């Protein structure tokens, strides 16, 4: 059950923002084999002066940071998949590939409180984390 935050430097039309959220979620379904109903994705728009980016970017207003907090246990190969899936899917909204950064943070299941306050390590998740 990844918890994902998309951070951008410009407002998009609501349908584009929803599309980006859906693209990120679809990338996680494809890459991590999570259930489609497991959707925890937020989009945060920063004022450009509050979100510094490298001055070498050709379109700094399009810079996009995707941070995925997920259960630990996936292999390096499994973590490579969301990088390419996310860049491809988010890129379909006109965001250049080199303007997208993806950070995957592995967090042990005993550090997640889910399903009414249970430690995730004590819950049958319904899917395999070790892929």
Shape: elongated
Q: Can you write the helix and strand succession as a string? A: EHEEHEEE
Distance between the termini: 14 Å
Low-confidence sequence ranges: none
Proportion in helices = 25-40%
3D architecture notes:
The structure is a single chain. The chain is α/β, with parallel strands linked by helices. Helix content is 27%, strand content 24%. A 4-stranded mixed beta sheet has the order 2-1-3-4, with helices on one face. A hairpin with a 3-residue loop joins strand 5 (113-114) and strand 6. Helix 1 (14-32) runs antiparallel to helix 2 (76-91). The longest helix has 19 residues, at 14-32.
Q: How are the elements arranged and paired?
A:
Layout lengths: L2 E6 L5 H19 L8 E5 L18 E8 L4 H16 L8 E8 L5 E2 L3 E2 L12
Parallel strand pairs: 1-2, 3-4
Antiparallel strand pairs: 1-3, 5-6
Helix pairs in contact: 1-2
Give a quick precis of the structure:
The chain has 131 residues and is of the alpha/beta class. The chain is 27% helix and 24% strand. The mean pLDDT is 91.
Give descriptors for this structure.
6 strands, two-stranded antiparallel sheet, 131 residues, four-stranded mixed beta sheet, alpha/beta
């Amino acid at each position: 059950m990844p918890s994902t935050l998309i951070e951008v430097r410009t407002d998009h039309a609501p349908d584009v923002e929803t599309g980006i959220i859906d693209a990120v979620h679809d990338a996680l379904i494809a890459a991590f084999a999570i259930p489609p109903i497991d959707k925890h994705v937020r989009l945060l728009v920063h004022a450009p002066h509050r979100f510094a980016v490298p001055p070498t970017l050709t379109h700094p207003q399009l810079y996009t940071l995707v941070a995925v907090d997920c259960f630990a246990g996936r292999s390096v190969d499994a973590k490579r998949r969301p990088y390419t899936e996310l860049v491809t899917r988010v890129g379909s909204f006109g965001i250049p590939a080199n303007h997208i950064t993806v950070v995957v943070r592995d967090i042990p299941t005993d550090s997640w409180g889910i399903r009414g306050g249970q430690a995730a390590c004590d819950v049958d998740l319904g899917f395999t984390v070790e892929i």
